[in-house]
User: Which sequence fits this backbone?
């Protein structure tokens, strides 16, 4: 099979979903051919195939974009809405939280809301405080939404197909720094079920529970520490909410130690919820407290060295693992 | 003056009285203490809702607000299901999980009732976008108040609807108050309809208490939308004859405003029109009596209906998959 980038993987997933189901359509700022197929080119080439009505370039109107996606979904369409950068969800939270997430429940199951909200973010690009945040915890705190993020091209293709298939809203987070990752194309029709974590690397001493770009850091650290005789297991959640609790608990029951790792700020992050859950349910096997790593509790800074100091780094991960192992 | 044929007038009258008698019954139940729920009275706005729903086809979509009783009952939600939902019963449209502010009944086209001011407009665009995409010929009508015209979603939705020429009708029921704030205290521009021009959209302002103004205006907007000519903003001038919600103080309404709204009450005006069109007092009374009997039966049914199972709090959160 050919090698594909994450951008291509996402594009292939949308393309094949649109080819199979006329109810699938894209909308968002700059998504059509006239604007170059999206600022990160994920929707490139789709206008030529499916026309401007199914690849709708919208005004800069996030509330109208998500509202339109919600309404279209209620009428049986399967919209893929793009919010160009994750921080802009602040503009349309009412449509996501009060409407998309709740309409299935509040209607007694009559109006499910199958929309995918693709959005991009990431620290390390120099975009500063309003274009970089990982805000997955905002959505993980709301019932009625799936929150998904891929760490590699194959998962990107499979998770996005599954997200488009899902009969509920999905927040699909893409990390800017991962768009260029290359891997083998899993091929047409490939799906990764929502709510299923992957064991990205098996180990026996400690479980790192992470997702998205930080999976790459965790894998690097695992390689490095293997040389020192520390065996690290990396659990890639893939679906952040509702997450695969069974896989997480099984991993921790095996290793007896756990570290949660995410790019989002640490306080009240998803790592806190996962850590609390592990401590409740694996107390009998834990060899020490669950450790947590997250971004610094401040706005993402601009200057490159500040940004690098802000973001969780491999040194911190190694330190926390060694503390957990009693080797520091 | 626009003409409306007798059959359509009768249709509008029946819908208007359904809305009015439902409102009266709800207030009676709340006053008696038999029922204690949030309810947003529609007294004074019955005709706007009824005429607007009479201008739609059965399969057309409607998005309304917490003050949506008029659209809901006039569009034709079965009364037993409507009352069941308002009383929080398992027999309600939404199994008692939505309530008075979140009535949904896709079978009659009531797709969303939002409790958030102005949030319906962007969603209405989406319903209309679906119709534009799949060519089903439906029109979507979204009802909202004057207060909603000042929230961002209104402007985003108006611009987008006109941009794509979506088959949607924006019906602003200007009842002169946004919650407890008078129009003049929240908006300086002389009308909401005027704003349409800023989006390149057609906008009209009509007297919502005059059936010969409100019905033709909405009908024309619906027809335009169905012909693919794009959206219209219809501003229907009307009065909210009670407080923001049932039981809310509205002593802030100045006496001259009260006198004006009493003089403009749509119900005696419509009754007069009906009599002028050779409907008899007896016929009209019989219609109301029939509606009352239906409502009373629906209320009795709802009062006796079972409560939702407690396990419902865990259901309909996400699709249940094996």
Assistant:
């Amino acid at each position: 099979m050919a090698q594909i980038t994450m951008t291509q993987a996402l594009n292939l997933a949308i393309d094949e979903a649109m080819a199979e189901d006329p109810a699938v359509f894209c909308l968002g700022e700059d998504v059509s051919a006239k604007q170059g197929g999206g600022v990160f080119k994920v929707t490139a080439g789709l206008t030529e195939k499916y026309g401007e009505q199914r690849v709708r370039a919208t005004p800069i109107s996030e509330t109208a974009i998500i509202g339109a996606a919600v309404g279209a979904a209620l009428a049986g369409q399967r919209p893929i809405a793009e919010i160009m950068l994750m921080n802009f969800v602040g503009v349309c939270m009412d449509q996501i939280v009060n409407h998309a997430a709740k309409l299935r429940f509040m209607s007694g199951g009559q109006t499910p809301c199958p929309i995918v909200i693709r959005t991009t973010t990431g620290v390390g690009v120099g975009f500063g405080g309003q274009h970089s945040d990982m805000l997955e915890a905002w959505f993980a705190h709301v019932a009625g939404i799936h929150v998904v993020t891929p760490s590699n091209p194959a998962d990107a293709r499979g998770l996005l197909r599954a997200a488009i298939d899902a009969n509920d809203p999905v927040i699909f987070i893409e990390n800017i720094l991962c768009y260029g990752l290359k891997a083998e194309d899993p091929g047409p029709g490939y799906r990764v079920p929502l709510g299923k974590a992957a064991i990205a690397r098996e180990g026996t001493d400690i479980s790192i529970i992470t997702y998205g770009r930080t999976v790459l850091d965790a894998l690097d650290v695992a390689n490095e520490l293997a040389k020192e005789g520390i065996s690290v297991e990396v659990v890639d959640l893939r679906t952040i909410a509702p997450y695969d609790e069974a896989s997480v608990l099984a991993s921790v029951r095996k290793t007896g130690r756990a570290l949660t790792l995410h790019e989002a700020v640490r306080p009240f992050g998803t790592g806190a919820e996962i850590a609390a859950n592990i401590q409740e349910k694996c107390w009998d096997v834990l060899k020490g407290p669950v450790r947590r790593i997250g971004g610094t509790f401040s706005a993402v800074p601009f200057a490159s060295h500040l940004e690098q100091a802000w973001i969780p780094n491999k040194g911190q991960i190694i330190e926390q693992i060694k503390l957990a192992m009693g080797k520091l | 003056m626009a003409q409306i044929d007798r059959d359509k007038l009768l249709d509008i009258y029946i819908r208007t009285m359904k809305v009015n008698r439902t409102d009266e019954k709800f207030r009676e139940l709340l006053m008696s203490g038999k029922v204690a729920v949030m309810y947003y009275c529609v007294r004074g706005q019955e005709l706007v809702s009824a005429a607007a729903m009479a201008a739609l086809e059965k399969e057309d979509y409607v998005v309304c607000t917490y003050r949506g009783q008029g659209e809901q009952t006039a569009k034709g939600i079965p009364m037993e299901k409507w009352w069941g939902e308002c009383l929080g019963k398992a027999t309600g449209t939404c199994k008692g999980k939505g309530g008075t502010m979140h009535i949904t009944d896709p079978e009659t086209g009531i797709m969303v009732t939002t409790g958030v001011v102005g949030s319906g407009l962007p969603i209405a665009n989406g319903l209309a976008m679906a119709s534009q995409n799949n060519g089903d010929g439906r029109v979507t009508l979204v009802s909202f108040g004057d207060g909603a015209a000042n929230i961002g979603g209104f402007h985003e939705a108006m611009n987008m609807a006109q941009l794509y020429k979506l088959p949607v009708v924006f019906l602003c029921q200007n009842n002169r108050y946004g919650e407890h704030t008078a129009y003049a205290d929240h908006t300086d521009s002389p009308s909401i309809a005027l704003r349409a021009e800023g989006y390149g959209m057609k906008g009209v302002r009509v007297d919502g208490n005059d059936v010969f103004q409100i019905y033709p205006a909405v009908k024309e907007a619906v027809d335009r939308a169905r012909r693919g000519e794009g959206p219209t903003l219809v501003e229907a001038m009307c009065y909210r004859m009670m407080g923001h919600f049932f039981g809310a103080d509205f002593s802030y309404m100045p006496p001259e405003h009260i006198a004006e709204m009493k003089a403009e009450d749509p119900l005696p005006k419509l009754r007069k029109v009906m009599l002028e069109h050779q409907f008899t007092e007896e016929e009209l009374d019989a219609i109301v009596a029939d509606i009352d009997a239906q409502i009373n039966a629906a209320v009795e049914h709802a009062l006796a209906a079972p409560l939702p199972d407690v396990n419902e709090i865990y259901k309909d959160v996400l699709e249940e998959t094996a």
About this structure: Chain B has one domain: 6-257+277-302. The beta strands of chain B are 61-65, 110-114, 140-145, 168-174, 177-178, 181-182, 202-207, 232-237.
